[in-house]
Specification:
Layout: H1 2-12, H2 16-33, H3 36-45, H4 49-57, H5 65-73, H6 78-88, H7 93-111, H8 113-121
């Protein structure tokens, strides 16, 4: 996964450490929000992705810290909550959009376009970012 993260970081123009955390957060978000079968297949197909999800989203795969807890309690969340979390890590909207596109491209390479399209289509609002 390190090689994949390094490539994403270089393409987006951020540090590998930040890219690793952001990709882990994005994949964790997809694991929580997307259709279970396709997202599981997608994450398992990307080498090291399951480890990133666990590292940046807690043991149960649900993360977000205090903000995530508040958004969940208020019935909010979704793609906007993920955006807020990534911005709190220092990413701007253009970086988040680039990061999402690069992550989806990697997922397509490993899991196939059909599986990734199912995942993206099952998350409200995600298609406009990728």
């Amino acid at each position: 996964m390190t090689e994949i993260v390094d490539q994403i970081a270089a393409r987006v123009g951020i540090t590998p450490e930040l890219a690793e955390k952001a990709v882990g957060m994005m994949l964790g978000f997809l694991q929580r929000e997307a259709a279970d079968g396709p997202v599981t297949k997608m994450i398992e197909a990307i080498p090291g992705a399951s480890d990133l999800v666990a590292k940046y989203n807690g043991e149960g795969g649900s993360g977000g810290g205090i903000l995530g807890s508040i958004m969940g309690a208020l019935g909010g969340g979704g793609i906007m909550a993920l955006g807020q979390q990534l911005m709190s890590e220092g990413l701007g909207m253009s970086e988040i959009t680039s990061l999402a596109r690069e992550t989806i491209a990697v997922a397509e390479q490993h899991a196939g376009k059909e599986v990734v399209d199912e995942v993206v289509g099952s998350v409200p609002g995600l298609s406009q970012f990728v």
